[in-house]
Amino acid sequence: MTQVAEPEIARSTPSAETVHHWIGGRRVAGTSGRKGPVYDPATGQIAREVDLASVAEVDAAVAAAQAAFPGWRATSLSKRTEAMFRIRNLVEAHRRELAAHLTAEHGKVPSDALGEIARGIENLEFATSIPNLLKGGFSEQVSTGIDVYQIRQPLGVVAGITPFNFPAMVPMWMFANAIACGNTFILKPSEKDPSASIFMAELLKEAGVPDGVFNVVQGDKVAVDRILEHPDIAAVSFVGSTPIARYIYETGTRNGKRVQALGGAKNHMIVLPDADIDMAADAAVSAGYGSSGERCMAIATVVAVGSVADPLVEAIAARLPKVKVGPGTDPEAEMGPLVTKQHRDKVASYLDSAPAQGATVVADGREHPLYRESKGFFLGASLIDHVRPEMDCYRDEIFGPVLTVTRVATYEDALNLVNDNPYGNGTAIFTRDGGAARQYQFDVNVGMVGINVPIPVPVAYYSFGGWKASLFGDLHMYGPEGIQFYTRAKIVTSRWPDPGTSKVDLGFPRTR
Ligand code: NAD
Asked: To test the ligand 1 pocket, which listed residue (187, 244, 295) has its Cβ within 8 A of the most ligand atoms?
């Protein structure tokens, strides 16, 4: 893939302006009178506001998307391919400005923000193969003179509702395939970090995507509920927490929509006694504290099997003081603040409840000096050992830099722990024993498995999806299943008989 030179002049930077909607190819100021605060998590200050859409504003976006659909659907595959290439190149060229929006509103450090964007770009690259992906099937001569073929057609107006933790990548998981397939799209991003959505909308416009093909409505439950009930929206993709995912799936399907709703997670990392301790400790720290633990594929809990527990906990603990916590403006920072004060305090609360319930706090991030010195939502890397399944810090999705360790005696105990957990998003096993790893891959009830890989997010030409309470719906997101989700099959049976060869036959059509 061609590397595109970065522009010398920055396109736009985070400003104090209110974040508006994007409807019909332009910014549209909200008229609902409702706005929400958008924080800079590193300073704790309100940096700007975001419009919160009314029902009428969602309806306006749907009308724009519906008006654009016939023309976009009829646009040739070659032209849609060209558009996907241009979007891909523009996102790459402007990745640093996009990353600046992520750091400003989510708090993630620039290296992490650029990693998020790189994984999003993979989805744009996948969608450039749309002519190949939309190839149907053809069966010649299924009966005498009769051919049958299958084509896949777009659904119409589709919507994506996204979480705060990947404000660029998760929208790209959805809109890349959705629009490449010929649908028109409405994005409802998280109200906590909405600016990336408008930046991406501008890039799509610059790439020549016709007005109305990609729209953004900023908002909260009011906008989401209107999307779920709007008769002209054919399908909804959602990524977020499990209770909301369940609600989206139930409400959307009740209203006749195709829905894929990805929920929360509790990802276990099994470490067998033969594992390389340094490798396992490096992986646990990278995957547990990267992005401050605010990743759906973060390692949330280490399951230490047998004799590995003491040296492993010691090795993880030894690494924690070296994790550099700081704002995204500090070039040395590896772990930024949490997204809001409310979330920061909830994550920190597990460091109170865990010892009260019998666990041992090995590292306590509440004491991190930046939290006292700044008003930012910082929490240092924290570690809780001797965690048992009935404790709150094991049962809840903490979604922060608090890693827990559960000690078990055998592989079977570890497997049962993972399979008894209600979530099934990701898991990893660390071992030097190929047979044990293969057995785990065979046995575990989780959608994405890493073998000595702690964050097994599939590449864009596979699909992403958890099991159990981590996904509601039949199809995983992006990749080949994304193409399936955003299209429906039409099967054509055809013949071209010569005139004068037909007769009346009331029997059910046979092929022999
Ligand atoms: P969230 O569920 O609070 O919000 C997600 C979206 O739903 C947002 O756009 C929000 O505006 C909307 N929403 C929130 N409350 C709503 C309500 N009551 N009614 C209707 N809509 C509502 O999630 P979040 O805090 O933004 O993101 C973190 C969660 O997302 C974590 O649980 C994480 O595991 C999960 N997540 C999952 C995946 C995955 O692929 N499975 C990926 C990223 C994040």
From this structure: 244
Find the residues whose C-beta lies inside 6 A of ligand 1: 161-166, 188, 190-191, 220-221, 224, 239-241, 244, 262-265, 296, 397, 399, 425, 466, 470
CB atoms within 10 A of CB 9: 4
pLDDT of residue 361: 98
Which whole number is the average pLDDT over 358-371?
94
User: Which has more pLDDT, 372 or 133?
Assistant: 133
Give the C-alpha separation, 488 to 281, whole Å.
Answer: 46
Same fold for the pair 18-263+470-491 and 267-451 = no
CATH of 267-451, one of 3.40.1390.10, 3.40.309.10, 3.40.50.10710, 3.40.630.30: 3.40.309.10
Q: Is the dihedral of CA 78, 79, 84, 88 positive or negative?
A: positive
Q: Where are the domains of the chain?
A: 18-263+470-491, 267-451
Residue 328's pLDDT is 95
From ligand 1's centre to the CA of 190, what distance in Å?
8
Quote the CA–CA distance of 269 and 420 in Å, as a whole number: 15
Q: Top-level CATH class of 18-263+470-491?
A: alpha beta
* pLDDT at residue 12 in the model: 53
**6, pLDDT greater than 90:** no
Average pLDDT estimate for 451-465: 98
Atom of ligand 1 nearest to the CA of 466: 41
pLDDT at 7: 43
Contact 195, 101 (CB under 8 A): yes
Summarize the confidence of residues 336-362 as an average pLDDT.
Answer: 98
Please answer whether residues 351 and 364 qualify as being in contact, where contact means their C-beta atoms are separated by less than 8 angstroms.
Answer: yes
